[in-house]
Amino acid sequence: MAGFLRALCYSQVLVFLLSITCSAAKEFLVGGKTNAWKIPSSQSDSLNKWAESSRFLVGDSLVWTYDKEKDSVLKVRREAYISCNTSDAIEEYNGGNTKVTLDKSGPHYFISGAEGHCEKGQKLIVVVLSQRHRLVGVSPAPSPSEVEGPAVAPTSDASSFKAGYLVALGVLVGFMWM
């Protein structure tokens, strides 16, 4: 009986710790560096390449730094993203230091508000996962008809999380049999 109570106590602590580590929202500097919001020098320098290597969850934030005298960030719908239509923005940010909280799952589209910049590749698609995907480890890749460009590649974070969870579960089961 003492072994069972000890395992129950450990499992409650484990669940508490997992809930803390799994619910913290992150802040992402767009492009991974200051002043990355610019016309890319090549396709490999595209901000979408950076976004593909990141995992975004509901509640996370994107932070842009740019020269507010020369540029802005527009949150747009898919159609405006594809056509680089700057006149139909959902939101317009022009302060030079922009923070946008990702409040729902699915694709989020951003383009430059500076004339001609979007057409030259200064745009970004961020695919946001729901909180349930953090524990499951599944990355829903958007269909080609949903977005232009490559799908978001899964990262190893979910695999290592699952492996750690299974090890901890094994330890707890071992305590139960003591």
Automatic annotation (TrEMBL):
Domain of life, per lineage: Eukaryota
Domain Phytocyanin: start-end pairs: 26-130
InterPro entries on file: Cupredoxin, ENL_dom, Phytocyanin-like, Phytocyanin_dom
Endpoints of the signal sequence: 1-25
Cellular localisation: Cell membrane
GO MF entries: electron transfer activity
Membrane topology summary: Lipid-anchor; GPI-anchor
GO CC term (a single one): side of membrane
Keywords: Cell membrane, Disulfide bond, Glycoprotein, GPI-anchor, Lipoprotein, Membrane, Signal
PROSITE patterns membership: PHYTOCYANIN
Family: Belongs to the early nodulin-like (ENODL) family.
Protein name as catalogued: Phytocyanin domain-containing protein
Species whose genome carries this gene: Vitis rotundifolia
